[in-house]
Design a protein that fits this description.
Layout (H helix, E strand, L loop, with lengths): L2 E8 L9 H7 L6 H16 L4 E11 L3 E4 L3 E6 L11 E6 L2 H14 L3 E4 L8 H10 L4 E8 L4 H17 L3 E7 L26 H16 L2 H6 L1 H4 L9 H9 L9 E3 L4 E3 L2 E3 L2 E3 L5
Parallel strand pairs: 1-8, 2-7, 2-8, 3-6
Antiparallel strand pairs: 1-12, 4-5, 9-12, 10-11
Helix pairs in contact: 3-5, 5-9
Length: about 290
């Protein structure tokens, strides 16, 4: 039997692969705490021990008619970001997939009536949330990236998460689920965006978006995932990244409204050109 050994909500911004000297210029001499925060995430994974699979819910991979799994045996190539080629260009990648787990997830979903595709082609495009996290966190584990179905509603994300959790437990995997994305996610207009490079949350796009992000972080710290799920319709007004599907799938895998693991911030809550970013580790031992 497999198990979900670790879970975290993690930021993936391109700033993380920019030289520290430039990051500090943007931060008025201070570095983003997200870089050191990912190192803390890796330390927590090491403390848990025995993790053989990283399940990455990737908020830059949008699907339309079903949930899609990257089920190939291996991924190898060179990546340039179509969004930010100045920051991420000609980046080689080479990492093992998790084909056995992908197959079990697909089979479990089919039995539950949840639409999925297990995409086993090694030509399947990769996305930088997965690659940036692997830069900091990968130590040879199998990797299963999962897309965000852009037509899904909250209950669809939660149900797919329930299927994912069941499949992990049915498999032999000892997995960490990494919800790779931000919180509120609206950028400043082009003419203003470079005036808001500071990591200070003062620069979050609106005070209301910042307030909602901070309220959700507080609920995570108390382990009140039911309240976060109930707030979803209100939170959608602030355009959470990936429709907040990365969090909802993770929550569904760990019990949905019944999940009570408390969150621990492993970074500050920061601005990234208007968007809210943070790393939060969930202590599964107390859920």
């Amino acid at each position: 039997m497999g198990d979900i050994a670790a879970a975290a909500f993690v930021a993936h911004i391109p700033t993380l692969v920019i030289p520290e000297e430039i990051r500090r210029q943007w931060g008025d001499g201070e570095d983003t705490t997200l870089a050191a925060g990912l190192e803390r995430v890796r330390e927590r994974l090491d403390d848990v021990g025995g993790i053989d699979t990283l399940v990455i819910i990737d908020t830059h991979w949008f699907t339309t008619t079903e949930h899609v799994l990257a089920g190939a045996e291996h991924f190898r190539g060179v990546y340039t970001s179509e969004e930010m080629p100045r920051a991420i260009c000609d980046k080689p990648y080479d990492y093992p997939g998790a084909p056995d787990l992908a197959k079990v997830v697909h089979e479990t979903a089919k039995a539950a009536g949840v639409r999925t595709t297990n995409a086993t082609s090694p030509a399947l495009p990769v996305h930088y949330p997965t690659l940036i996290l692997l830069d900091y966190l990968h130590r040879g584990e199998g990797v299963l990236s999962i897309g965000i179905c852009q037509t899904a509603q909250a209950h669809d994300f939660l149900e797919f998460g329930r299927v994912l959790g069941e499949a992990i437990r049915r498999s032999g995997a000892r997995a960490a689920i990494l919800a790779a994305g931000g919180m509120s996610h609206r950028f400043y207009p082009l003419g203003e965006i470079l005036d808001h490079l500071s990591y200070d949350p003062f620069h979050i796009i609106t005070p209301e978006a910042r307030g909602m992000d901070e309220k959700i972080i507080g609920l995570w710290e108390r382990g009140d995932h039911a309240a976060v799920i109930d707030m979803y319709p209100e939170y959608r007004k602030h355009s959470p990244e990936g429709f907040f599907g990365h969090y909802l799938i993770m929550a569904g895998a760990l019990g949905g409204r019944d999940w009570t693991a408390r969150g621990v911030k492993l970074s500050d809550y920061e601005n990234s050109v208007g968007t809210g970013q943070v790393h939060v580790w969930f202590d599964l031992g107390d859920s």
